[in-house]
Design brief:
This protein has about 500 residues and is an alpha+beta fold. The chain is about 50% helix and about 20% strand. It has ten helices and 14 strands. The relative contact order is 0.06. The C terminus is likely disordered.
Length: about 500
Amino acid sequence: MMSIRLRLTLWYSGLLAVTLLVFGVAVYMFINWNTYNDLKEQVRKDSESMRINAMMFFNTLDLNVEDRGILDKDVYIQLVNYEEGNVIRQSRNLKTINALIPFPEHTTNPDRAFVKYKLNIEGKDYSMIVYQRPIVINNQLVGLLQVGAIPYNEEKFMDGLRTTLIFASLAVVLIAFTVGLLIARQALRPIGQVISATRQIEKGSDLSVRIPANGPKDEIGQLVDTLNTMLARLEKAYNELDEAYKAQRRFVSDASHELRTPLTTIRGNIDLLEKMWSRAKESGASAAGEGLRLTADHWEMSSEAMSDIAAEAKRMSTLVGDLLALARADAGYVMEKQSLPLLPLTEEVARRAGLLPRSADWRIGDLSKLRDVHVYGNHDYLQQLLFIFIENAFKYTPNGYVELRAVRKDGHIGWIIEDTGIGMNPDEIPHIFDRFYRADESRGVTVGTGLGLSIAKWILDEHGGSVEVVTRENEGTTFTVWLPIDFSRRDDSTIMVEADHIEE
């Protein structure tokens, strides 16, 4: 892409070239007219000063011209007799060069005028300006007087002038182009500083960078001042938002930590009460050991209350745990990672997933692609990642099945979690990883917080992974979770196995 500096330089260099062309042509034509006009005037005067005498000898017409001017070395004279149709007199210099000036036919009835002829003299072509003067006696054209001059010096001068004008113009345009580039560069230097400063702001997070304003208060100076003012306002707004965001993150983190302890206590006490009342019901003793028996109604109401409390406490614990994980993600938490074999990790999750509450069948497909495959990551968070997708599939699959299998492609290993559940509209896929987004919120099919896939997205980003989603309403959903393979933990046998997988 052509820069503004180059475009400006080309524009005014082109304008200068056109101006020099017009000026050069005008100067050349003016000097050319003056130079040849002086020569023509000299030739015309010489021709008019010559007197022609006509005499009759033996019924033939003979023309006699006085010798005055006939010997001029710069002027060539030729006298044509139209009665005989030949040249009867030439000046000595014309005879010396052994040249004949062309002349028109008698029938053309020529007027007094200048004519330019080409003469070949000693093998070279020369141009000659000739003033032709008809000789009329008794209203009859009897001859033609031709007086000419060779404009050798004039042509040489005009050729030199033309060459000088061309090369001088080219040199001026080249110099103007070079100087113009330097001037344009200097004039546009503040714009370069603007670009450099904006790039620094774009690449970094320091909004305190300002554009140097050292030049005059012209249009560029006003632009620099305007941009600096805008940057100052952006910095102020960014700092205010950053402080608010930091305060929000501190609140979420602190609230999560503070809520974990009482919720754990509540759940522990509920479990203890359930055990105590269960024993009381079985033994027929009172809850406090004072002989008061629990009726069936009391027991049913207490059991329902304890179940509700336990469910809500569990839900709040899950929510707090999710908020804590997201708070760590926002705070830039760095996971501890190492090279992990993926097959044992997956098998452990698959075994434990079969114990999760569910109404769909749990299927474990082909996991052979995971054999001898290592990934660089965090064991606990990778397990959590896989559990999130499996629990999500269980949640949205009221009947049918949920299947886990593995796939490998181009240096990546993938988990495929496929279900035959309620699915979702494909238009909702770009939003399912947003926090608190529920694809089925309007339908109310399931309960949840909408944070699980957001946490999964964070874990995937930390591990350099990605996810593919294929879904259709009432036909199920398929998640393919990709992780980069860690090739640093391979031996020769592993390489051979991986080669076989790739060929397959």
